Amino acid sequence: MDDETTTYDYVIIGGGTAGCVLAARLSEDPACRVCVVEGGPSDVGDDRILKLRNWINLLGSQFDYGYTTEEQPRGNSHILHSRARVLGGCSSHNTLISFLPFPQDLDEWVQAGCAGWGPETILPYRTRLRNTIVPVGAADRNAIAQDFVTAAAGRLGVPVVEDFNARPFTDGAGFFSLAYDPETNNRSSASVAYLHPVLDRPNLTLRLETWAHRLLPDSEGRFTRIQVRNPDGSHSTLEADAEVLLCAGAIDTPRLLMLSGIGPAGHLRDLGIEVRADLPGVGENLLDHPESVMVWETRGPLPPNSAMDSDAGLFLRRDSAGGPRPDLMFHFYQVPFTVNTERLGYPVPEHGVCMTPNVPRARSVGRMWLRSADPAVKPALDFRYFTDPEGHDERTIVDGLRIAREVAATAPLNDWLLREVAPGPDVTSDADLSEYGRRAAHTVYHPAGTCKMGAEDDPMAVVDPQLRLRGHDGLRIVDASVFPTMPTINPMVTVLLAAERAADLISPGSGR
Asked: Per its UniProt record, what PROSITE patterns does this chain match (predicted)?
């Protein structure tokens, strides 16, 4: 039985990247009562979370929801999609690589019916961001990563980029910009930057380790009531006098909508869920940045300094038809990332490095759905990796594997390398590289698009350009699920910008 209802002005479901921004901005008005519902614990004072370089140990930990992947006939069916169970969400869990979206990425949103989301509107919000975003600090610039940058720029004829956020770029090699403090290796996550300084606000309530499992309409049909499971297992109902702001991410936001009867009517009826809003786009348009991996054994141990062991990268533009944006990306890992190659039978070197060819604008599109009406049952995720009819994604990986070999054979990087471990120098044909590249493929944990924003005449749009649930009042969605298309680069900063924009849409002038 539920406890009596507790009422706030705004209830934010999900204390992740977007939720932290909204909580800080909306609670600037001392008369505005804001509640954040977060399924995980606090990150305050917890160095397991706060130290950026520990990110790899968070995968599969108590701070990870760990969603499985449906069978992928042309990809890797064994991928675990990490979603963070902690305040700050994925900004408390990821590598905090921080890129502004390209202007052309936002132009595509406008073309997809998202009026008011062009670069002239969204990019100026960068001045509002509270995160400290800086290129990898000098003390963290590992010598082999530096030699990777030198070798890549020299072999491929691309510039060395000192700051990837200084201006848009078409190609280049360099150290990433990260949201962190180089002096301490502490994260500048959304929770650290936005929430930690304001936790003592009397009008801000955090309900941690609290799971939202159903939205309910009020007497006027507005989806402003939320049923939650409290840390002790009891259940409560929260109500928003103004709006519910759903910020649970590209997996849990559509999951909660469908559990609440908001989604594709036929699917919901099949599960015995009462249909409250027939929105066929909920759970569709599942996007990601797939990538593969090549592994080299090094001649010995590597220097110990690093920000987060994947500090440098490479961008290339192979096809100018996509405009002035890269269409191939590499992360350079200063550790052997072998979770997928080991499963395929490749050895694990004691000391090694990796390059990960990544598909920045993948054309394969998937979907997600509920397996059960039981909120405890995880949803099904089918990313449909490498299924685009033109073979663009597969070709990108094959090209990337070949280019990675070119860079590895170039001084000064080649002086560090003993041998190619995976896939090994005998794997040379396009067909064999494709087979290896797809089976060893992984994710960089960028699911998006499952509640896409769009115009009124787009039947698959879930929210309008004001981020309001289509056809219903009282509920907005603010997270990567609203992306109509995937930004070319790591999307965390795009989520931060979207949340700052949302704060103005919800409460004009907030944060100014």
From this structure: GMC_OXRED_2
